[in-house]
Write a structure and sequence with these properties.
single chain; alpha/beta; Metallo-beta-lactamase, Chain A; 7-stranded mixed β-sheet; 6-stranded mixed β-sheet; globular
Length: 339
């Protein structure tokens, strides 16, 4: 049942599934995409109020036992409060998803949780190294605020990058590796598992595309289970993830940055594929869509992903109550071990 090896001959990593190599399209494909956009009308940004900021319900300092709280900060940044644990995924508080803050994709909505309102953070999970998921300034601010007690977990190949930011203790995990935090602390520990994803890595033209691995994450504490997909195209490993680690109370899946399909299909799911992935992950619990509405990254209109997601959800005849389509800053609250 295990996925084929993702270790590439000669070193580095690759997407092991047939046809998945297009997830790693090179400079030629990128330039073709950009040339196609020349002269095309650009969908205007959403008007004020079309992406409203919600009042979050962050538990201070921690959630109650048996409670799962997930607050959508924006894009793929989630504040996960699972039992007594506070975990951040792919944290980005900067104004732009870019190597510089004077150019590149700018926020359409402020972070859904103000920096000052963050509770004590125990662990940070990184899915891959792209700028909309790994932000140097945010990493440095978290390290300065929470110090060496903060647990950092990332896929293979990240330790050197973190050392350059001053973070010395990073757990690097391969696919299916697990780490448990808090064993013997008098409350349920948290188990964190790096799971497969279909994506790619590189932050600059000077780096090899495959030097750092990419992953999704499974979080489990007590009866609560969350799947965080990070950034991924649709790929065949969702049933295996469910078989190994499901059922899930919540599946956080990306639904944006999918057009044009010839370029984005292998690396980014569209809303219909996200519903298919949800079903293959067990089709229970809540689907929490992310990776849309925060930064304009690709060609689809900013507000299209949730519209298409609602349509695909209805066509699959899934319960409306299980579609957790959050506003920025909104908090999903679930009692664990329930549907």
């Amino acid at each position: 049942m295990s996925a084929p090896t993702h270790h590439a001959p000669g070193g580095g990593f690759r997407n092991p599934w047939p046809g998945a190599g297009s997830a790693e399209r090179g400079l030629g494909a990128f330039l073709r995409w950009r040339l196609q956009r020349l002269g095309e009308a650009t969908e205007p940004d959403p008007a004020p109020g079309e992406l409203p900021l919600a009042q979050s319900q962050v538990a201070q300092p921690r959630a109650e036992p048996g409670e799962l709280r997930i607050t959508w900060v924006g894009h793929s940044t989630l504040l996960v409060q699972i039992g007594r644990w506070n975990v951040l995924t792919d944290p980005v508080w900067s104004e732009r998803a870019s190597p510089v803050q004077w150019a590149g994709p700018a926020r359409l909505v402020p972070p859904g949780v103000a920096w000052e309102a963050l509770p004590p953070i125990d662990a940070v999970l990184i899915s891959h190294d792209h700028y909309d998921h790994l932000d140097r300034d945010t990493v440095a601010r978290l390290h300065e605020r929470f110090g060496e007690e903060l647990q950092w977990l990332a896929p293979l190949g990240f330790a050197d990058w973190f050392r350059q930011v001053g973070v010395r203790h990073v757990e690097e995990l391969d696919w299916w590796d697990e780490r448990s935090l808090g064993a013997g602390a008098g409350a349920p520990p948290i188990r964190l598992t790096a799971a497969p994803a279909q994506h790619w890595s590189r932050r600059s033209p000077l780096e090899r595309r495959r030097d750092r691995l990419w992953c999704s994450w499974v979080l489990q504490s007590g009866d609560a289970r969350l799947y965080f997909a990070g950034d991924t195209g649709y790929f065949p490993a969702f049933p295996e993830i469910a078989a190994r680690h499901g059922p899930f109370d919540v599946a956080a899946l990306p639904i944006g940055a999918y057009e044009p399909r010839w370029f984005m299909r292998a690396a980014h799911m569209d809303p219909g594929e996200a519903v298919r992935a949800y079903l293959e992950l067990g089709g229970r619990g809540a689907l929490l869509p992310m990776h849309w509405g925060t930064f304009r990254l690709t060609d689809e209109p900013v507000l299209e992903p949730p519209r298409l997601l609602r349509r695909a959800w209805a066509e699959a005849q899934l319960p409306e109550r299980d579609l957790a389509l959050l506003r920025h800053g909104q908090t999903l609250v679930r009692r664990t071990g329930t549907d």
